[in-house]
Amino acid sequence: MAAPETSTAAVPSLYTNNALRNAFGGVLSFFILLLIGVMAFSIRLFSVIKYESVIHEFDPYFNYRVTQFLAKNGIYEFWNWFDDRTWYPLGRVIGGTVYPGLTLTAGTIWWLLNSLNIPLSVETVCVFTAPIFSALASWATFLLTKEVKGTGAGLTAAALLAMVPSYISRSVAGSYDNEAVAIFALIFTFYLYIKTLNTGSLFYATLNSIAYFYMVCSWGGYTFIINLIPMHVLLCIVTGRFSSRLYIAYAPLVVLGTLLAALVPVVGFNAVMTSEHFASFLVFIILHVVAFVYYIKGILSPKMFKVAVTLVVSVGLAVCCAVIAVLIALVASSPTKGWSGRSLSLLDPTYASKYIPIIASVSEHQPPTWPSYFMDINVLAFLVPAGIVACFSPLSDSSSFVVLYIATSVYFSGVMVRLMLVFAPAACITSGIALSQSFDVFTRSIKFQLPGISSNTEVDAAETSSATAEAQNDAVKTEKSEETSKNRPSKKSKKKEKEEKPSTKAKAEKRLIALPLDSSVISLLLLILLGAFYVVHCVWAAAEAYSAPSIVLTSHSHDGLHVFDDFREAYAWLRHNTDVDDKVASWWDYGYQTTAMANRTVIVDNNTWNNTHIATVGTAMSSPEKAAWEIFHSLDVKYVLVVFGGLVGYPSDDINKFLWMVRIGGGVFPHIKEPDYLRDGQYRIDSQATPTMLNCLMYKLSYYRFVETDGKGFDRVRQTEIGKKYFKLTHFEEVFTTHHWMVRIYKLKPPKNRIRGKTKKSKSKTSSASSRAKRSGMGKKNPWH
């Protein structure tokens, strides 16, 4: 009688110890998450500490300008804003062509801070929005990974995401782009989907639809979500994992999420009319067919079930055929088969280079190189395979989703370097799972093999397992007391109870299996060393590689640090020395910055929605000076801006981008042909360059007076002397060149009134000759008509 009393007395103390341990673990996890959020925020402040609080890159300047308009004029004016300073003379409806999530988020933060009498400027809020949401993304990663493999894996994954260079590149202070908030929305939507899948709660399903709506508002990459989740649902159905929880997790997302997505003006009816969304609807139909089959199976006899299945399958095939026929008709009516150009370039990496050069011309749309993987995710590339293996032991609905996520994101990151950003969270999740389980195995092995601990540990483990088993049995007995009083245990149940005891012992023995002590210690030290290397690399990437704003450039040499502030110098000159209504022509890369910083009207910008308009500017840059003047004059252009890096060695200048101007222009205007600008298939600017290249407008505007800098005209980017050194401009005049020659601004010369001068001259000198020419019809045609 003493033994049972001892065991029953040990159960409350066991529960008390477990409760205290869980409470302490929860508090510790909270403080660790808080520190991870602080780390995620602070590691992204190098750009502000080293340089200044300034907006980075090109697209963020448009977002900043839109946020300024929203803060000044309000939400209703924002939805109806027609911007006449872009895409002249077409203009642009801002409210219907932007993803408003980032703008509304920053505008709301600014409004709340000012309501609390915290007078921050709109620019300051925009600069620090990305670091704030990087902390939120780390916490969302913790929640997602915790649902898959527990708290330890969640904390590890959150710490990895807080520092991963791929995400830092798009979320440093000043990187005010859509991805700043979209990555958080992406991860949080996945977490709510997994949470709903694990719990079957309609509350989480509703939150999942709202999170998806926020993702749709924030970034066009929402199509990744609405295709990945249906793929996972289909995988669960095919592998026999259908359940009511799966239905609750998916059906409300498709219905409510699609309705909410259609409310976003830039999406609208595309949520139901484009091919990117058709997979979700098809899986939605399949899910209901499977649910109906399971329902019928539960209420009918086996014979009736076969008849019903035959009927359902026949009707379902007829409905599916009808739906597929309608979809084929809709898709066939579109020249791109219902897919957007970017989506087609993901499915077929060669599509953009063949048919849409404007997409292929963007550097972030190019495939990544192998070193870029090591740069952006570093040692995670070696941990991802181990994390995938860990997801299969055991394989659950949530872990299969992670495997599917990592597989698809790896493919898309290999097609487009920009999508390394989507791959980074998946890599951090799988690497966190691998590190967490590895640390668990190694530390347990060391713990069990230390002298004086192993025997006590085995006894404690056996006592703990037996005590918990007894407690669970007692709980089961109390819950099912009525059933046990009515029904006595059968022989089969007794056999099962006898078989359960050795199985629990076998499981306990499996838990106690450990690696050799020396191997465990060495492996643990190697993992710590690997983590230290990852931290050092991430800090270096945040401080050096990704902190420098593209608008302010720096270089180190033997005489110290050099700062190149030519872009802001040029935009300031335009703002203070040109009329408000003057139009500025440049390549589309600089459109957003010109509009936001110089406040001048541009012909094209980074939105790239009108390929013909961009091709017109590309044609002008590729044409001789006189023809280019006529094109720009027809567009009411007064100034032309070119970026030139030949003096200081800046490689991202317009000369290096020039072939894309030729290709885009030639795609619309056939008289522009790329071979005319190449010498034996090589792009050259030296004495071997073709006459077409040496006489085009881009060459002349870039190299005008360049020989005066060193007497030779040596281009430091192309590492050669230019071919045409001495020439004059007849239709353009130089009005401003920045300190380092990085930005050059030219003004179109006004057209000469040649008709009146020629008429007076002909009347005074050769009136008889002109009359004879008129009678014979040999007079020259006016070139300006």
TrEMBL record:
<comment type="subunit">
    <text>Component of the oligosaccharyltransferase (OST) complex.</text>
</comment>
<dbReference type="InterPro" id="IPR048999">
    <property type="entry name" value="STT3-PglB_core"/>
</dbReference>
<feature type="transmembrane region" description="Helical">
    <location>
        <begin position="180"/>
        <end position="205"/>
    </location>
</feature>
<dbReference type="GO" id="GO:0004579">
    <property type="term" value="F:dolichyl-diphosphooligosaccharide-protein glycotransferase activity"/>
</dbReference>
<feature type="region of interest" description="Disordered">
    <location>
        <begin position="459"/>
        <end position="505"/>
    </location>
</feature>
<feature type="domain" description="STT3/PglB/AglB core">
    <location>
        <begin position="581"/>
        <end position="640"/>
    </location>
</feature>
<dbReference type="Pfam" id="PF02516">
    <property type="entry name" value="STT3"/>
</dbReference>
<keyword id="KW-0328">Glycosyltransferase</keyword>
<keyword id="KW-0812">Transmembrane</keyword>
<feature type="transmembrane region" description="Helical">
    <location>
        <begin position="278"/>
        <end position="296"/>
    </location>
</feature>
<dbReference type="GO" id="GO:0046872">
    <property type="term" value="F:metal ion binding"/>
</dbReference>
<feature type="transmembrane region" description="Helical">
    <location>
        <begin position="150"/>
        <end position="168"/>
    </location>
</feature>
<feature type="transmembrane region" description="Helical">
    <location>
        <begin position="211"/>
        <end position="235"/>
    </location>
</feature>
<keyword id="KW-0808">Transferase</keyword>
<dbReference type="GO" id="GO:0005789">
    <property type="term" value="C:endoplasmic reticulum membrane"/>
</dbReference>
<feature type="domain" description="Oligosaccharyl transferase STT3 N-terminal">
    <location>
        <begin position="27"/>
        <end position="429"/>
    </location>
</feature>
<feature type="transmembrane region" description="Helical">
    <location>
        <begin position="402"/>
        <end position="435"/>
    </location>
</feature>
<dbReference type="Pfam" id="PF21436">
    <property type="entry name" value="STT3-PglB_core"/>
</dbReference>
<protein>
    <recommendedName>
        <fullName>dolichyl-diphosphooligosaccharide--protein glycotransferase</fullName>
        <ecNumber>2.4.99.18</ecNumber>
    </recommendedName>
</protein>
<feature type="region of interest" description="Disordered">
    <location>
        <begin position="753"/>
        <end position="785"/>
    </location>
</feature>
<keyword id="KW-0464">Manganese</keyword>
<feature type="transmembrane region" description="Helical">
    <location>
        <begin position="93"/>
        <end position="113"/>
    </location>
</feature>
<feature type="compositionally biased region" description="Basic residues">
    <location>
        <begin position="772"/>
        <end position="785"/>
    </location>
</feature>
<feature type="transmembrane region" description="Helical">
    <location>
        <begin position="308"/>
        <end position="332"/>
    </location>
</feature>
<feature type="transmembrane region" description="Helical">
    <location>
        <begin position="23"/>
        <end position="43"/>
    </location>
</feature>
<dbReference type="InterPro" id="IPR003674">
    <property type="entry name" value="Oligo_trans_STT3"/>
</dbReference>
<dbReference type="InterPro" id="IPR048307">
    <property type="entry name" value="STT3_N"/>
</dbReference>
<keyword id="KW-0460">Magnesium</keyword>
<feature type="compositionally biased region" description="Basic and acidic residues">
    <location>
        <begin position="496"/>
        <end position="505"/>
    </location>
</feature>
<keyword id="KW-0256">Endoplasmic reticulum</keyword>
<keyword id="KW-0472">Membrane</keyword>
<feature type="transmembrane region" description="Helical">
    <location>
        <begin position="247"/>
        <end position="272"/>
    </location>
</feature>
<feature type="compositionally biased region" description="Low complexity">
    <location>
        <begin position="462"/>
        <end position="471"/>
    </location>
</feature>
<feature type="transmembrane region" description="Helical">
    <location>
        <begin position="125"/>
        <end position="144"/>
    </location>
</feature>
<comment type="pathway">
    <text>Protein modification; protein glycosylation.</text>
</comment>
<keyword id="KW-0479">Metal-binding</keyword>
<keyword id="KW-0325">Glycoprotein</keyword>
<feature type="compositionally biased region" description="Basic and acidic residues">
    <location>
        <begin position="476"/>
        <end position="486"/>
    </location>
</feature>
<comment type="similarity">
    <text>Belongs to the STT3 family.</text>
</comment>
<feature type="compositionally biased region" description="Basic residues">
    <location>
        <begin position="753"/>
        <end position="764"/>
    </location>
</feature>
<feature type="transmembrane region" description="Helical">
    <location>
        <begin position="521"/>
        <end position="543"/>
    </location>
</feature>
<keyword id="KW-1133">Transmembrane helix</keyword>
